[in-house]
């Protein structure tokens, strides 16, 4: 059933009794060509593109909870393609281009809103770093503008330009960056994949991976055994646990990232603004709540929650950036499960086990990558070779030395 | 989160800096397969959901290195001891 | 003229009259009023407009769980959006304005959404606004964003100061109702260091709102006695206006003290609010319970209120929501409102009890009872004119100007879940009670599912005594006061099937019973999907009243039982927390410390030009 203002009007006159489920609650079959483990944004996008771009439809997505119950369900919704290093930038720009046509592509309003991502800088050195990044973006054909203080002030006049501890000197702007409605992305991909024959199986946890002669043959799950020719893992912070079922040890640490939303207020922030003198970013959702966050807590965690030091840092940075925030209230906070990698960049690669593919290491930046991650992972699984823009995201780059370290922080996951 | 430092008592985690996994051992560079061993030491992690032995540095306190046994699912800390040389308590 | 102020009674101080204004109109109240109670006393029913449909709304509750009565408090740089009128203490010169309406509260153009409601069900925006592609950002989204949100940010730097402080204790008692007061007494008498915190400006909890007796005297007198004793114990700290909002690992709690929110401008050198980071060896959660509504046609009209709130206004604030009140209840507790209003001389139109037999103790009052019946419709738009009562498929109209509804009670389990615990469904009280507790936490009173006063007193005493023992103090000897112990019987009723008009479950986000049916029809049947698709529970009240009813209705529609559906995740903070108080003094130039090199003074004396961040010195002429 196509979604449009016409179907909405038509159904409205019928009391909305004719809407059909957005995706089937499929029963698992005994065998599939491809099984994707993980029903988040990345897993569902992969299934969608496998079906749509590669004609691979005998696919199941296994999700241990309800779809989108992981980081896709609770992120700060930012989309952007303003990365520095060549191994990353082309990938995120592919993602950006996919965002730009996504709603029409999968017939679901994911509320992609390219309202601009403004990265503030507060010193000459920071300006130079952003100039370098902006130039790297432009060399990839991506939009980037370096704004001086006066221009930034015209754009976001409510920020503190008078009394700041770290005065704003200017900003790097990617106009095409912005936000998207995260739950809608999950549901849009699920509906699109389901329509093309993909089975989405919820409440199905993988408990074992069967390997024979160095090749996968299937999985054990809480809903029975399923045979599979190819298996793609897209389970973010649970990557080490699922990979361990195949006997793999990975360069991944699972960490908590906290994020926050305020009470809904009338429009106050038009863009996405990131603070340069502290790890903090903020935007406003279409419902009116300010959505904001900061750094990871810094210690391994599978607890889906963090502690006060980061919360205070985030709220202090918010006040430092915009002193008018004082009487706005934080409404809810949550914590997710991030797969931090050793260089802060993701892994989309095959593994030492034939037919077993890995998609992980997104750290806290996986949401913006959702379309390209699905696109490239589908390509990899369907053709058994990496997609061009993801060619650098190899698992063995820790061996070859071809690390993609945007922050230059080294082999310390919690510093990325 | 509060970490019970053996010298200083329970202190907020913002007094500490986290390094990570305390189990991995720096390999002997003279041993055969040292390259592979060094790679695994630097990059590969158990990353358990459950008990985790990890290194914390009490930077804003006694500046000791501590090996903390903490459950990564519940954050419950069951043991804290000074990080010493390998094999020592 | 305070048309609905009762001549006698209440805990207001009639010797301290106060004047305030709402939407530019001047009114009078008293010290001890909240903005909500003063508005009710003045017969003001219409307080705001709902988020999506812009329906006229009044005051639903008497506490921080309020979904409707949100106002902009103060003006200028101190203007605070989304302030709950139910917890805003009245002070002289208070200025408040309604939100989310244009041009006025009475005539709001947004109400057109109410007429277009059939085209705006839950999730409608996911199915449209995609064509033409450029229109989303150019046209649709700006319109949506303009309509979204409730109050406005002040738009200027917050002029008030905020502080952060630490506190340590043996036992943190959260909530100073009967259970909390007993816990604090028990732990305090045992010699423990106790902090007793309550978000209200008075101690007593439900004892302030109800007419209970303890040891044969007024509950209020017992509270005063307890307060005096607690004040005399040197290791007990009593913190009023202090909400414990969050639980973190290893006995850490965060609380927000509203030091000066109840005065026009904080006195010089005093903070507006103070953040407390508390480390407690043990805690007793005695946070009480939230009453819930029943969903029926037009149950959101101004003048429809929770039954416990209605009697709180009558008993504590001497303000009556109406002159002829009807009560709709599925449990014994709702009758208390009829009894209290009756005792205050207010006419009771009828008590509509969904059960076949009304509780015995209320029969002697001579109040008209319609049993085995449901309210299916509320007549009126800016207020209540009458209600439709369905009894045995017969519908009768009952005239009234206020309707008090009791659908049962939800224990305030929130803090028990902050470390990942999930509550458990308890059939006897048709509610969720605490499951796995955070280490070191005890729960007592209504928060623990104990819904009689005697159980609250006993439970509080046991929890406080146990907590003190666990901290190494001797077992306290404390005599148990006598109080009522009749069980609160309930027959679950979540929505009235005979309703034809919109039946609201989440008031602030305008989520109706039909929306829940739609979500289930479209496969959003996991409780988290229901929430995200319909936005039920995502408003500023975080579903304190709506969540349980919503999932119960989902259970019914999807053919599951309530435990199978389960709850969504309870996350901190329990009540929203301002940016200001979380930042404390770390703002402006004091955001982070300024570190100077040892040569800084010398460099300045040499007239050096200093770069911003590191304050490096350059010699004159720019040479290093």
Question: Per DSSP, what share of the residues of chain B sits in E-state strands of 2 or more residues?
Answer: 35-45%
Rg result of chain B = 14 Å
Biggest sheet strand line-up of chain B? 3-4-5-6
Helix vs. strand class of chain B: mainly beta
Cα distance spanning the termini of chain B: 25 Å
Number of strands of chain A: 18
- Please report the total strand number of chain B as a whole number: 6
Strand content bin of chain A = 25-35%
How helix-rich are the residues of chain A, as a percent range?
A: 25-40%
Shape of chain A: globular
Strand and helix order of chain B: EEEHEEE
The best one-word shape of chain B is globular
Distance between the termini of chain A: 43 Å
What's the multimeric state?
heterotrimer
- Class of secondary structure makeup of chain A: alpha/beta
Mean pLDDT of chain A: 97
- Integer-rounded radius of gyration of chain A: 21 Å
List the helices and strands and how they pair.
The complex is a heterotrimer of chains A (416), B (89) and C (624).
Chain A: H1 5-13, E1 31-37, H2 41-54, E2 59-62, E3 78-79, H3 86-106, E4 117-121, H4 124-139, E5 145-148, H5 149-155, E6 170-174, E7 178-179, H6 182-195, E8 199-201, E9 206-212, E10 215-221, E11 224-233, H7 239-244, E12 252-264, E13 272-275, E14 280-284, E15 289-300, H8 308-321, E16 329-341, E17 347-350, E18 356-360, H9 366-383, H10 397-400
Parallel strand pairs in A: 1-2, 1-11, 2-8, 4-13, 11-18
Antiparallel strand pairs in A: 3-7, 4-6, 5-6, 9-10, 10-11, 12-15, 12-16, 13-14, 14-15, 17-18
Chain B: E1 2-5, E2 9-12, E3 17-21, H1 34-43, E4 51-57, E5 65-71, E6 77-82
Antiparallel strand pairs in B: 1-2, 3-4, 4-5, 5-6
Chain C: E1 13-22, E2 25-31, H1 35-41, E3 48-49, E4 56-57, E5 70-73, E6 80-84, E7 94-98, H2 112-115, H3 135-147, E8 162-174, H4 178-189, E9 194-197, E10 213-214, E11 217-218, H5 219-232, E12 236-239, E13 242-248, E14 252-257, E15 273-285, E16 289-291, E17 304-306, H6 307-317, E18 324-329, H7 333-343, E19 347-353, E20 369-371, E21 373-379, E22 386-391, E23 394-399, E24 402-406, E25 409-411, E26 424-426, E27 431-433, E28 441-443, H8 453-470, E29 504-506, E30 511-512, H9 513-521, H10 527-534, H11 546-558, H12 562-565, E31 577-578, H13 579-583, H14 600-605
Parallel strand pairs in C: 1-7, 8-9, 8-15, 9-12, 15-28, 17-24, 18-19, 18-24, 19-20
Antiparallel strand pairs in C: 1-2, 3-4, 5-6, 5-7, 10-11, 13-14, 14-15, 16-25, 21-22, 22-23, 26-27, 29-30
């Amino acid at each position: 059933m196509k979604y449009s203002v016409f179907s909405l009007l038509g159904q409205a006159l019928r009391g909305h009794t004719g809407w059909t489920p957005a995706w089937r609650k499929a029963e698992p079959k005994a065998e599939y060509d491809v099984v994707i483990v993980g029903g988040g944004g990345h897993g569902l996008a992969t299934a969608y593109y496998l079906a749509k771009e590669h004609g691979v439809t005998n696919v199941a997505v296994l999700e241990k909870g309800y779809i989108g119950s992981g980081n896709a369900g609770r992120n700060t919704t930012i989309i952007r393609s303003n990365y520095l290093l060549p191994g990353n930038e082309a990938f995120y720009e592919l993602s950006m281009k996919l965002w730009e046509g996504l709603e029409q592509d999968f017939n679901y309003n994911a509320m992609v809103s390219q309202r601009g991502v403004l990265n503030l800088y507060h010193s000459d050195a920071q300006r130079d770093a952003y100039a370098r990044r902006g130039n790297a973006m432009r060399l990839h054909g991506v939009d980037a503008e370096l704004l001086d203080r006066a221009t930034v002030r015209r754009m976001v006049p409510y920020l503190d330009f008078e009394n700041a501890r770290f005065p704003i000197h200017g900003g790097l702007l990617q106009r095409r960056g912005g936000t998207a409605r995260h739950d809608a992305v999950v549901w849009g991909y699920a509906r699109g994949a389901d329509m093309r024959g993909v089975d989405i199986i919820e409440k199905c946890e993988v408990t074992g991976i069967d390997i024979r002669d160095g090749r996968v043959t299937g999985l054990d799950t809480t809903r029975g055994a399923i045979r599979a020719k190819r298996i793609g893992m897209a389970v973010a912070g649970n990557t080490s646990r699922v990979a361990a079922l195949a006997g793999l040890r990975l360069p991944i640490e699972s960490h908590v990232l906290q994020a926050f939303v305020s009470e809904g207020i009338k429009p106050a922030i038009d863009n996405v603004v990131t603070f340069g003198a502290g790890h903090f970013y903020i935007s406003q959702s279409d419902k009116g709540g300010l959505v904001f966050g900061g750094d990871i807590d810094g210690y391994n965690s599978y607890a889906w929650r963090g502690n006060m030091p980061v919360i205070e840092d985030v709220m202090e940075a918010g006040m430092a950036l915009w002193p008018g925030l004082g009487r706005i209230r934080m409404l809810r906070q949550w914590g997710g499960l991030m797969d931090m990698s050793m260089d802060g960049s993701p892994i989309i690669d095959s593994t030492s086990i034939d037919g077993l593919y890995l998609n992980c290491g997104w750290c806290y930046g996986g949401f913006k990558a959702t379309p390209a991650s699905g696109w490239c992972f589908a390509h990899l699984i369907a053709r058994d070779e990496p997609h061009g823009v993801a060619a650098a995201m190899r698992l063995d780059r820790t061996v070859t030395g071809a690390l993609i370290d945007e922050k230059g922080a080294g082999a310390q996951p919690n510093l990325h | 989160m509060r970490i019970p430092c053996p010298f200083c008592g329970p202190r907020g985690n913002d007094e500490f800096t986290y390094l990570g996994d305390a189990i991995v051992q720096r390999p002997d560079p003279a041993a055969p397969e040292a390259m592979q061993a060094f790679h695994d030491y630097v990059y590969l992690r158990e990353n358990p959901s459950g008990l985790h032995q990890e290194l914390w540095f009490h930077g804003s306190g006694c500046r000791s290195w501590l090996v903390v046994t903490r459950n990564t699912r519940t954050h419950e800390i069951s043991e804290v001891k000074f990080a010493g040389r390998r094999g020592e308590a | 003229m305070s048309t609905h102020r009762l001549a006698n009674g209440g805990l207001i101080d009639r010797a301290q009259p106060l004047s305030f204004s709402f939407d530019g109109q001047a009114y009078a109240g008293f010290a001890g009023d909240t903005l909500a109670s003063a508005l009710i006393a003045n017969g003001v029913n219409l307080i705001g407009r709902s988020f999506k449909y812009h329906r006229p709304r009044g005051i639903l509750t008497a506490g921080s769980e309020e979904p409707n009565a949100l106002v902009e408090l103060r003006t200028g740089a101190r203007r605070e959006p989304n302030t709950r009128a139910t917890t805003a203490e009245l002070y002289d010169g208070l200025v408040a304005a309604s939100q989310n309406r244009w041009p006025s509260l009475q005539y709001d153009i947004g109400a057109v959404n109410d007429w277009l409601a059939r085209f705006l069900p839950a999730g409608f925006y996911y199915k449209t606004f995609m064509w033409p592609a450029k229109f989303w950002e150019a046209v649709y989204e700006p319109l949506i964003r303009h309509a979204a949100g409730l109050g406005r940010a002040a738009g200027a730097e917050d002029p008030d100061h905020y502080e952060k402080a630490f506190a340590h204790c043996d036992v943190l008692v959260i909530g100073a109702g009967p259970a909390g007061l007993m816990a604090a007494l028990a732990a305090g008498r045992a010699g423990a260091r106790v902090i007793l915190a309550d978000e209200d400006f008075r101690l007593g909890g439900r004892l302030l709102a109800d007419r209970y007796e303890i040891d044969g005297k007024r509950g209020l007198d017992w509270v005063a006695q307890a307060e005096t004793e607690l004040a005399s114990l040197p290791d007990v700290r009593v913190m009023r206006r202090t909400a414990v909002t969050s639980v973190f690992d290893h006995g850490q709690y965060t609380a927000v003290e509203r030091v000066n929110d109840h005065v026009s401008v904080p006195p010089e050198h005093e903070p507006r609010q103070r953040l407390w980071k508390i480390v407690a060896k043990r805690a007793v959660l005695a946070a009480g319970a939230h009453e819930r509504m029943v969903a029926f046609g037009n149950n959101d009209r101004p003048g429809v209120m929770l039954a416990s709130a209605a009697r709180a206004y009558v008993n504590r604030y001497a303000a009556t929501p109406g002159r002829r009140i009807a009560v709709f209840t599925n449990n014994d507790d709702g009758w208390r409102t009829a009894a209290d209003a009756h005792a205050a001389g207010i006419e009771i139109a009828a008590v509509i009890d969904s059960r076949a037999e009304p509780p015995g103790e209320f029969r002697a009052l001579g109040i008209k009872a319609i049993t085995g019946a449901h309210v299916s419709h509320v007549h009126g738009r800016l207020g209540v004119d009458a209600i439709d009562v369905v009894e045995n498929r017969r519908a009768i109209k009952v005239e009234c100007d206020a309707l008090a509804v009791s659908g049962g009670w939800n224990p305030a389990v929130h803090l028990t879940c902050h470390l990942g615990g999930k509550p458990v469904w308890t059939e006897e009280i048709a509610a969720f009670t605490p499951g796995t507790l955070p280490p070191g936490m005890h729960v007592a009173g209504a928060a623990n599912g104990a819904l009689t006063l005697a159980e609250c007193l006993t439970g509080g005493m046991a929890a406080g005594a146990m907590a003190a023992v666990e901290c190494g103090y001797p077992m306290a000897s404390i005599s148990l006061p006598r109080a009522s112990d009749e069980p609160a019987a309930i027959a679950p009723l979540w929505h009235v099937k005979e309703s034809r008009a919109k039946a609201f479950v989440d008031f602030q986000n305008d989520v109706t019973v039909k929306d829940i049916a739609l979500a289930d029809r479209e496969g959003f049947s996991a409780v988290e999907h229901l929430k995200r698709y319909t936005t039920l529970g995502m408003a500023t009240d975080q579903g304190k009243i709506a969540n349980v009813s919503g999932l119960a209705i989902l259970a019914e529609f999807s053919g599951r039982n309530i435990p199978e559906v389960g709850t969504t995740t309870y996350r901190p903070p329990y009540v929203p927390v301002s940016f200001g108080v979380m930042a404390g003094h770390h703002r402006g130039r004091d955001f982070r410390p300024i570190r100077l090199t040892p040569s800084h003074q010398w460099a300045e004396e040499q007239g050096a030009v200093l770069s911003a961040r590191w304050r490096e010195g350059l010699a004159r002429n720019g040479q290093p």
